[in-house]
Inverse folding.
């Protein structure tokens, strides 16, 4: 869903903004209904707990672990916390690295047969340094222009499956982009894209 400046202005485009907020409210209701369905799908007791308060801290821990394992080229760890599609992407990116190069990622403190997925906005300051080993002593040298701190905002998608009434742990499904208002409202929106004024 659009956030911040991407939302239509309440004063300049009130009809579009209200249509977007109505869509958001309907989606929240659908998500709540799906959550209850997920919980009560299992006839086995005790039923799975929703654990919504733990999703944020779990996302932060998995996010840090995912990028650290990627930087280290640790496919074993990635295979335990990532789903197949994201794992394949990481494997190909790791394989494409020169043998004498490795990455160092620093995620600095944050500012902030059923399937469940949640999307969490991760805001952090990160630095990604490329290190190249040179010479017989294999001393690592920092590649110039890398390792600078910058603010990063990503949307992390977590997934949890229930298979044969056994709940699996949260895994990183991948990342996604923030949705544009026109995408949410679509061509069949109740409100035209450009409001006509008299």
């Amino acid at each position: 869903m659009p956030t911040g400046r991407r939302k239509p202005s309440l004063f300049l485009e009130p009809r579009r903004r209200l249509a977007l907020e109505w869509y958001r409210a309907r989606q929240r209701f659908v998500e709540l209904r799906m959550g209850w369905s997920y919980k009560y799908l299992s006839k086995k007791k005790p039923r799975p707990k929703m654990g919504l308060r733990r999703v944020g801290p779990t996302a932060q821990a998995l996010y840090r672990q995912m990028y650290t394992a990627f930087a280290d080229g640790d496919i074993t760890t990635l295979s335990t916390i990532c789903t197949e599609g994201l794992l394949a992407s990481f494997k190909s990116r790791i394989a494409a690295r020169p043998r004498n190069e490795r990455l160092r990622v620093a995620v600095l403190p944050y500012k902030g047969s059923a399937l469940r997925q949640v999307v969490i906005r991760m805001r952090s300051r990160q630095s990604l340094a490329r290190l190249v080993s040179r010479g017989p002593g294999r001393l690592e040298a920092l590649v110039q222009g890398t390792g600078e701190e910058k603010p990063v905002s990503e949307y992390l998608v977590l997934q949890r499956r229930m298979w044969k009434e056994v709940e699996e742990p949260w895994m990183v499904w991948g990342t996604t982009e923030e949705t544009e208002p026109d995408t949410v409202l679509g061509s069949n929106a109740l409100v035209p894209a450009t409001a006509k004024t008299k």
About this structure: Strands lie at 101-107, 114-134, 139-142, 150-163, 166-167, 171-176.
